Amino acid sequence: MNATWFTFCLLAQKQQASFRNLGDRFRAENVSIDYGQLLLLAAFMLFAVLGLWYFQKWTTTKGDEGTDSPRRLFNDLCRVHELNRHERKFLWQVPRQLELECPASLFADPTHLVRAVRSADSDEARHQLENLGVRLFGTLMFRRHLTHCPQ
Q: What is the pTM of this model?
């Protein structure tokens, strides 16, 4: 125990570390910028952003070739017409109820939606179908089909 205390006392008597100049490297006069490293970082960031953009573009266009999926066509048309998830799910039920082969035909022929409006179970569903018809075909066209199509 005496030896440990003696060693501690010797270490304490040695010159203590100077903490006065710790911030010297953070002062403005000592700052230096390595423009080569900065340019390399900017080039790397540009390369990474362009690479991610190209990869995203490549993956989205790659899936469009050779697919014959009615569901995918329906979803693409919903996206183009900016329908939200609730409207998509609601509109997806209409071709099933009307027993249509291609659900995307709702976007081409307003008579399908007119039939759905007339066969709707509730006023809320009827109102929602009318609003979707107006959004897809425009007010005048859809209202004309709604009033002039045979029952």
A: 0.51
Q: Are 103 and 92 in contact (CB under 8 A)?
A: yes
Token pair belonging to 84: 């939200």
**C-beta separation of 1 from 9 below 8 A:** no
Q: Tell me how crowded residue 53 is: count the other CB atoms within 10 A of its CB.
A: 10
| pLDDT in single tens digits along all 151 residues of the chain | 666 766 666 566 666 666 677 666 666 666 677 888 899 999 999 999 999 999 988 887 665 555 677 888 888 889 988 989 998 898 898 888 888 888 888 888 888 888 888 888 888 888 888 888 888 888 777 777 777 766 6
